[in-house]
Write a structure and sequence with these properties.
Length: 225
C-alpha cells in the first residue's frame, strides 16, 4: 500500500469521525441558543394548581371568551406543531380560556379527537383578569383583542421563561418572534416547529452532559477507593 493510500485510510478511519464529532458538538451548541426574553413569568399554577409551566416546555395560548373564533388557528397549530411534539414527555400545550366557554371547548375537543391524541392539550378555564395577568406578564408588544384572545402562541421553557425565536420567512427575516402567528402556516411549520426543537434539544443536551459528568465523577471516586 502506498503512502497516499495509507493516508486516505487513516483519514477515513480517524480524522473524518473526529470532524463529524466536532460538527455535532458545534451544531448542538448552536442549536440550543433560543434567547430568554422574560424570566420568571407568572405561572399558570396561580390559576389552577393542577397545572404548571415548571419542568415542561410549554406552548401557551390565550383563547378568551370566543373559542369558536379561534377554530382555524387551533387547527393550524394542532397540525403543524402539536402533532409533532405531543409524544415528548417534557412537552405540553396550555390554552387559557375564559369561564363560560366550557361547552364550546368540549365541542372543539370532540372534533379534534377524531384524528388527534389530546393527551397534551390542556384547556384551563379562568377569569378574564387572570388570563390578562399572565398575558401582560409576557411583556410583549402584542395585545389581547376585545374577546381576551390572541392569535399568537408562545414558548415557555422549564424555568418559566419566555423564549424568543427568529423568523425564517424572507419578508420578516429580521423580526424577533416573541409569539408565533397561528394564522400563518409557514410561521408555525418553519419557525415555531424548529424553535420548539431547539428548546427541547437544549434540555436533552444538558441532561446528557450532566449524566456524563456524574459518571466521570463516579469513576474518579471509585479509582480513589
Amino acid at each position: 500500500m502506498s503512502k497516499k493510500q495509507k493516508f486516505i485510510v487513516l483519514f477515513a478511519l480517524f480524522i473524518v469521525p473526529l470532524l463529524f464529532y466536532i460538527f455535532l458538538q458545534l451544531g448542538t451548541h448552536n442549536f440550543g441558543k433560543l434567547p430568554v426574553v422574560v424570566e420568571n413569568i407568572l405561572d399558570v399554577s396561580h390559576i389552577d394548581k393542577n397545572y404548571s409551566f415548571e419542568n415542561k416546555v410549554s406552548v401557551v395560548l390565550f383563547l378568551g371568551d370566543n373559542v369558536t373564533k379561534a377554530d382555524g388557528e387551533l387547527f393550524n397549530l394542532n397540525e403543524k406543531v402539536y402533532k409533532k411534539f405531543y409524544g415528548y414527555t417534557d412537552f405540553q400545550l396550555i390554552a387559557l380560556v375564559a369561564k363560560g366557554q366550557e361547552d364550546a371547548v368540549e365541542k372543539l375537543k370532540k372534533r379534534m379527537a377524531i384524528n388527534t391524541n389530546l393527551i397534551k392539550w390542556n384547556f384551563i378555564f379562568c377569569e378574564k383578569k387572570e388570563l390578562s395577568a399572565i398575558f401582560e406578564g409576557l411583556k410583549t408588544t402584542y395585545n389581547l383583542d376585545a374577546n381576551s384572545h390572541s392569535s399568537k402562541a408562545f414558548i415557555i421553557d422549564k424555568e418559566v421563561n419566555l423564549r424568543r425565536g427568529k423568523s425564517t420567512i424572507k419578508a420578516q427575516e429580521n423580526e424577533k418572534l416573541l409569539g408565533y402567528n397561528m394564522k400563518s402556516i409557514s410561521e408555525l411549520k418553519d419557525d415555531m416547529h424548529d424553535d420548539i426543537k431547539v428548546v427541547l434539544a437544549e434540555y436533552s443536551f444538558a441532561l446528557k452532559k450532566n449524566s456524563s459528568e456524574d459518571r466521570r465523577k463516579e469513576s474518579i471516586s471509585n479509582e480513589k477507593k
